[in-house]
Design brief:
single chain, alpha+beta, two-stranded antiparallel sheet, 8 helices, globular, disordered N terminus
Length: about 220
């Protein structure tokens, strides 16, 4: 058999396999890869920080993750977590419940690659409790839900689960991605989110962001 004939046969076989999975309901379809929202530029982030008057961080009193309802339904059976997994992964395949059953994910924070969705968390770049201490304590539940499920700003990203857990609710003065090549992007993301949502910054947080962005 010629090379072109073998290639054609292989393609037909692959299409038949995917088609069989779709028909049996094991998968819906491969999800297209889309980039996360682009954060503001380093110059814009620096310009905004120049206008920020630092404010002491508020209290955690009264905080609960339940006050930030997530994950919201985005469309059909897909919620925010599943939407981010499909967006941030490559060749992601989902089942009829929108759960990712295969794919590949690159964690920008630490440079690890994963092939199981269970190895990933969806990080809130500005953690919910950080937001609470920075002004979200006075928001309505609707506002907090919109913040916790914000797909328009660079607030949600799929990363290695234990890295996200180690980050916790720390701000950039206490935690930055171990992958140094991503720190400028992370600082831009952080500033973008805080600017859009009108959240305050304390002195150490602002200084850490200024220092990072000055090197970008």
């Amino acid at each position: 058999m010629s090379f072109s004939a073998r290639l054609y046969a292989r393609r037909i076989g692959m299409l038949a396999s995917v088609g069989a999975l779709v028909v049996t309901g094991l998968v819906t379809a491969p999800a297209a890869h889309a980039a996360p929202p682009t954060p503001i530029s380093a110059a814009s982030a620096r310009a905004y920080l120049a206008t920020v008057t630092p404010r002491a961080e508020g209290s955690s009193s009264g905080y609960s993750r339940d006050l930030f309802p997530h994950w919201s339904t985005v469309s059909g059976t897909c919620n925010t977590r599943e939407t981010v997994l499909k967006r941030d992964g490559v060749n992601v395949v989902t089942d009829s419940s929108c759960a990712s059953v295969s794919g590949s994910w690159y964690s920008e924070y630490d440079g690890a690659t994963w092939t199981q969705a269970s190895d990933l968390d969806i990080d809130h770049v500005v953690a919910l409790s950080e937001a609470w201490r920075s002004g979200a304590n006075s928001w309505t539940t609707t506002q907090r839900q919109q913040f916790a499920n914000d797909l328009t700003r660079p607030q949600l990203i799929a990363v290695t689960d234990n890295v996200n857990q180690a980050k916790g609710d720390l701000d950039p003065s206490d935690w930055m991605p171990s992958r140094t090549a991503y720190r400028c992007t992370y600082a831009r993301m952080w500033v973008h989110v805080k600017q859009h949502w009108g959240l305050s910054m304390d002195t150490d947080e602002k200084n850490a962001l200024v220092s990072t962005l000055n090197g970008c």
